[in-house]
Amino acid sequence: MSIVEALLEQIRQETRDYPAKRVSIVRVRIGALRQVVPETLTFCFTAAVRGTPLENCRLDIEQLPATARCRKCSLMFPVTESWFECPSCHEAGAELLQGNELELMSLDLT
Ligand SMILES: [Zn+2]
Hints:
It contains 2 helices and 6 strands; from the N terminus they run αβαβββββ. The protein is an alpha+beta fold. It binds zinc ion. Residues 70, 72-73, 75, 86, 88-89, 91 line the site of zinc ion.
């Protein structure tokens, strides 16, 4: 699963300077448009780190709703699909404010 690989790559980069430390908690933030099911991500992550130094760390997933702002009337509204239009003026192509995140927020090292 490519999201897990991207995540592991970010963790590798963040922990490169602390080879003696062990990661205990990994906190990530994922936007709704990524369409990631937390249970699935946790399952894939657990499988991917088995037998590695990350084996016993916990994955904390924060999901962010997708929000857009209309370029015409500036209305902010929740997005439920990848393609969206303003519910007020029906202008298409609103600006996505959040929902596409895949961010490593923080790591707890012990
Ligand atoms: Zn609008």
